[in-house]
Design goal:
With 480 residues, the protein is α/β, with parallel strands linked by helices. The protein is built from 15 helices and nine strands. β5 and β6 form a beta hairpin. Bound molecules: guanosine-5'-triphosphate.
């Protein structure tokens, strides 16, 4: 596992945030301008959706000065590259209408839902918000560009609206979900099949043509939604959608070979592609939610909720899986730990106090063992520590350290200070075979016998398989 990568935009980095907004705005303005393939308006205008996604994702960017910076960057770009003059103020205002409307609607939702309950992506809401933002943006944009563009009011509105809506629906899911991978993932050749199927079906759309061809990639996209993570599915959807819009825009995918492409056809194609995106995104968010739920259920079954240690079944499951199942460790140390006179704590201070002691003990034990082994709660006030590759001497040192730490640092509960001790039974074995589970099963009853001896001999001590001369009066030894 690698450390999570810090996001570029962070609340405390005002200047860097401002710089990022200017660069992003200019960069995507440039992309949009490059795609002015037909007529005056761009075929695909990514700027608004990208910026709306950034503002929606990072709540702290929702400040008038950051919005103004983005707007200013658009005006400067226009001033340098077009001769729209004053009309540029209104045209770019329409871009800002999309960005601000979408970001505000998303932020309003985010403030109403608690972090844990937030779904990875609410596709239906995203559709609705894109629809509202696109309609408002198209209204302002149409009125602003009537003099500049050769189209009349309604075709201009349709073109503007369909472009904003399709671009928003394709880009925003990816901008809202993309993240650096937390661990290095190897892509197996098997994983490429769904993407290859998408490429093949777009190819078939080009070859066959006609209105129905736009839906050809749908099945392959749903396959992607099942096999890939949500951000990857969103990215594949984005690439496919943009490819289809551009292919329709430059007549590589032809609806009607007898007539040139008309604005109405592009309007229809864009809306069709945007609505097609709904299916794979819905499937992908459902798969992501099911996976998250399964992970949560597995976590609940594998971990003890009170102490954070593994549960008995969680420990066995862990030992049956790699690396514990297939590594040759050379030795194994098992410690069975029991809190002394725990019943008295319950009886004197109540069950709630007993629970608090168990929680605190679990935390201390996990911290003390660290990466040397696994800590599991076997039931009641009994814990086990499993240390693969740890020698008997090291195991005894660790057990003694833990015993001492518990005895020397009392627990605090409400106003009270509770001194507790633990008894430990430790067993050890040199292993020849790979894997840990068989040796663990053999060592558990031995550790149990040693724990019994620790209790019998007055508690607060470690009893082990053999004496390795640690020099501690508390370590009692016995050979199996
Ligand atoms: N608070 C709390 N108590 C628990 C939990 N699980 C088991 N216990 C209690 O732990 C106590 C265990 O007591 P015993 O097994 O008699 O042992 P002990 O008092 O620790 O004495 P020795 O082990 O002989 O030193 C019982 O009173 C159980 O009710 C739990 O989850 N929370």
């Amino acid at each position: 596992m690698t450390e999570p990568v810090q996001p570029f935009f962070r609340p405390e980095r005002t200047l860097i945030n401002a710089f990022g907004i200017i660069i992003l705005t200019s960069l995507f303005y440039f992309f949009g301008a490059m795609l002015r393939l037909i007529d005056e308006l761009s075929l695909f205008w990514p700027l608004n959706a990208v910026m709306a996604g950034v503002f929606a994702r990072y709540a702290f960017l929702n400040r008038p000065h950051y919005y103004l910076l983005s707007y200013a960057a658009m005006l400067v770009y226009d001033a340098i590259t077009t001769n729209w003059g004053v009309a540029s103020l209104a045209i770019n205002l329409s871009n800002m209408v999309f960005i601000v409307t979408f970001a505000m609607l998303m932020q309003r939702d985010a403030s109403q839902v608690k972090g844990d309950e937030r779904p990875p992506l609410n596709v239906l809401k995203l559709f609705l918000y894109c629809l509202i933002a696109s309609a408002l943006c198209a209204l302002v944009g149409t009125l602003a560009s009537i003099g500049i563009d050769k189209y009349k009011l309604w075709p201009l509105f349709a073109d503007w609206f369909s472009e904003q809506f399709s671009t928003g629906v394709l880009i925003l899911p990816w901008v809202l979900t993309v993240r650096w991978p937390r661990s290095k993932t190897l892509v197996s050749p098997d994983m490429l099949w769904p993407f290859m199927a998408v490429v093949a079906s777009v190819g078939a759309s080009v070859l066959i043509g006609g209105a129905g061809s736009l839906a050809f990639p749908l099945a392959a996209l749903i396959w992607c939604a099942i096999r890939y993570s949500l951000p990857v599915t969103c990215l594949v959807m984005l690439i496919t959608g943009v490819a289809e819009i551009v292919l329709v825009g430059n007549s590589t995918i032809q609806f009607n070979t007898a007539a040139p492409l008309e604005t109405a056809q592009l309007f229809s194609a864009r809306l069709g592609i945007a609505i097609m995106a709904l299916c794979p995104l819905m499937v992908s968010t459902s798969v992501a939610s099911i996976n998250a739920l399964m992970l949560q259920v597995a976590r609940r079954a594998n971990y003890d909720y009170l102490t954070g240690a593994l549960s008995r079944s969680g420990l066995l499951e862990t030992l049956k899986k790699p690396p514990f199942a297939d590594t040759r460790y050379g030795s194994l140390c098992v410690m069975l730990i029991d809190i002394d006179y725990f019943k008295r704590i319950n009886d004197s201070y109540g069950h709630e106090c007993g629970d608090a002691v168990l929680t605190a003990f679990g935390e201390r034990a996990i911290r003390a063992v660290g990466t040397k082994g696994l800590v599991a709660r076997m039931g009641g006030e009994e814990f086990v520590v499993v240390c693969p590759g740890v020698s008997l001497k090291e195991g005894l040192e660790l057990a003694e350290q833990l015993r001492q730490r518990i005895a020397d640092y009392p627990f605090n509960w409400q106003e009270k200070t509770l001194s507790i001790t633990i008894s430990i039974g430790l067993s050890h074995q040199d292993c020849i075979e790979p894997g840990v589970i068989d040796a663990f099963t053999r060592l558990m009853p031995v550790a149990d016998r040693h724990l019994y001896r620790s209790k019998q001999s007055g508690r607060n001590q470690v009893t082990s398989t053999s004496d390795v001369g640690l020099g501690s009066g508390k370590v009692i030894s016995e050979t199996i």
